[in-house]
Amino acid sequence: MSQDAKESTATAAPATDDGNGDALENLLHENRKFAPSAEFAANAIVDAGDYADAAQDRPAFWANQARTLLSWSKDFDQALDWSNPPFAKWFTGGEVNAAYNALDRHVENGLGDRVAIHFEGEPGDSRSYTYAELTEEVKKAANAFEALGVTKGDRVAVYLPMIPEAVITLLACARIGAVHSVVFGGFSADALRSRIDDAEAKLVVTADGTYRRGKPSPLKPAVDEALAKEGHTVENVVVVKRNGEPVNWVEGRDKWWADTVDTAPAEHTAVGHDSEHPLFILYTSGTTGKPKGILHTTGGYLTQTAYTHKAVFDLHPETDVFWCTADVGWITGHSYVAYAPLVNGATQVMYEGTPDSPHQGRWWEIVEKYKVSILYTAPTAIRTFMKWGKDIPAKYDLSSIRVLGSVGEPINPEAWMWYRDVIGANGGTKDNPAPIVDTWWQTETGAQMIAPLPGVTATKPGSAQVPLPGIAVDVVDELGESVPDGHGGYLVVREPWPSMLRGIWGDPERFKDTYWSRFEAMYFAGDGAKKDEDGDIWLLGRVDDVMNVSGHRLSTTEIESALVSHPSVAEAAVVGAADETTGQAVVAFVILRGDAVNNGEATVQELRNHVGKEIGPIAKPKHVLVVPELPKTRSGKIMRRLLKDVAEGREVGDATTLSDPTIMQQIAESLRK
Ligand code: PRX
């Protein structure tokens, strides 16, 4: 390998006392650095000039990106209106249509025959859509939704698998100015209903189901269950036929996609929407029991997603094949599947299923088949592949890969190096392994915020490193003072950015309280971070009651509420315990009610299933431990830190502030039984 591994220092104090010990240990010893190859740097689409431009005049930099990357039906007057913080307005007075930018204009520019989406179904079926074809599908869907009475500003709930109809639905909504609210297919009927109610959705778009590990997996029954109780706002349910399984049908309400969209007229004129027109709501877990409806608007969101997609992945749309493995139910699937790749006129791969179906080489087979050149995935997937062994990817030709992305959770240096050597260097056969871009961002930030630029930055295994051009990220101490290099603290954003959330749906106060009250005039991200001696940023995980399981955000409080809603449970405490593959795993400690019978494993299964029903399979605790008591301070606060020690098999830390110091002993004894 021709890369130079230069020395750098990465020393810092721990930012938080929340059990990131192991990750931090690794970081403290990490000193490798990989500069871009001369060839990569020479051909890079973005160079260091963007940092300089943005530093000179941040809003002007973004205004320039907005005009370069998007076609506005009406130009904007002002880049940023920050007269009423924290409510930002970007590109005021401008009008833009997201679907026109993602589709029609490419066709008008002679790119109609370029493939927009190569879809690969789990059972092995595949279809490709050119930009011309995808444009036509979206126009039909827009006409169909309008015919069902959906108009500008109405909310549409989307409960779909990873199939092209998901992208088509999102863009059709955007086209007519309807606000989509995607609910991940792994959420339960109850979770779907509460999101439908919160957003007052008029239409639901779903499918009969999908495939999971070779078997049909249903979706429609959850929609039926969600809508079974009266009092909702849904008028119609459009159903895509995907797996052909029999479904329950509500006459008058349910409509097949084939009968409504496929038969709709293929002509539809896109009109510009105000730059600040709501584009979508996406619910995410916070520190309280109730998920927050994160609101994103149009012009700023499209600008920053398109810019970062181009700059961070070094996108050459004429030749690259981009594959983001995220589900459209998460923000990554919104920004880097449904919007940015299409706005940038790229060709992308979309895969429906699991990485091990029908065999553990499925992803690499897909990379080889479509000659994927940019792969964007999560550390949890990389660690799973590591476990399966490098012999599996070695069977495939991965030489097309030239940029690798990571997102969703901190990537440990071992996984980073494996990703580079096994995937990015095609098992060591390539002289210049693909650069890895570790991208930090959130549902709330809408687009990437911290990431190396692959043609500019010398990358470090495990660090997201540098704020992107035009992004003012900092690490501050308890008082909001910027920490010096070599120190840890809290991650904040000091200046508004184009794709920032505009609020929490229906709850402006909660928006202020959650993000803007911890530090004066700064956005508080909820993450701990440190700056190394070079000033590069290392993310250290959440500092609040939010867990990160396989890159998915879950709230401890939400799972605790689900557990105590079970008739047998008196009290529950949930912690995210370090897990080799999923980053964190949900571990629940429960106290059963006096009259409840503990049936051992059967009780544990019942409680896990109960959480699955209340929130969704993704939230099921990995372990449920029935304990006689929970450790509490004298003021009644549960000391999750001590439970985390137990869950991670560590010696229990300082327990002197417990109201009853013998409790940890009692817990340990009950678990030994
Ligand atoms: O803790 C950070 C972690 O994921 C959180 C955001 O989760 P979500 O809104 O679901 O969005 C995930 C996909 C953008 C953050 O607060 N996170 C995300 N990316 C990284 C990360 N932690 C470390 N490194 C990252 N690259």
From TrEMBL:
**Annotated residues for binding of ATP:** G408, E409, P410, D438, T439, W440, W441, Q442, T443, D527, R542, R553
Give the top-level enzyme category: ligase
As recorded in UniProt, its EC number(s) are: 6.2.1.1
Chain residue ranges for the region called Disordered = 1-23
Query: Matching PROSITE patterns, A to Z?
Result: AMP_BINDING
Q: List the InterPro entries hit by this protein, alphabetically.
A: Ac_CoA_lig (IPR011904), ACAS_N (IPR032387), AMP-bd_C (IPR025110), AMP-bd_C_sf (IPR045851), AMP-binding_CS (IPR020845), AMP-dep_synth/lig_dom (IPR000873), ANL_N_sf (IPR042099)
Q: Where is the Acetyl-coenzyme A synthetase N-terminal domain?
A: 51-102
Q: How is it modified after translation?
A: Acetylated. Deacetylation by the SIR2-homolog deacetylase activates the enzyme.
Top-level taxon in the UniProt lineage: Bacteria
Name the GO terms of the biological process aspect. acetyl-CoA biosynthetic process from acetate
Q: Which residues bind Mg(2+)?
A: V564, H566, V569
Annotated CoA binding lies at R212, R213, G214, K215, T332, S550
Q: Which UniProt keywords apply?
A: Acetylation, ATP-binding, Ligase, Magnesium, Metal-binding, Nucleotide-binding
Per its record, the protein catalyses: acetate + ATP + CoA = acetyl-CoA + AMP + diphosphate
Q: Where is the AMP-binding enzyme C-terminal domain?
A: 558-637
- HAMAP family to which the protein is assigned, alphabetical: Ac_CoA_synth
Q: Which family does it belong to?
A: Belongs to the ATP-dependent AMP-binding enzyme family.
This molecule's function is given as: Catalyzes the conversion of acetate into acetyl-CoA (AcCoA), an essential intermediate at the junction of anabolic and catabolic pathways. AcsA undergoes a two-step reaction. In the first half reaction, AcsA combines acetate with ATP to form acetyl-adenylate (AcAMP) intermediate. In the second half reaction, it can then transfer the acetyl group from AcAMP to the sulfhydryl group of CoA, forming the product AcCoA.
The entry's protein name is Acetyl-coenzyme A synthetase
Record the organism: Arthrobacter cupressi
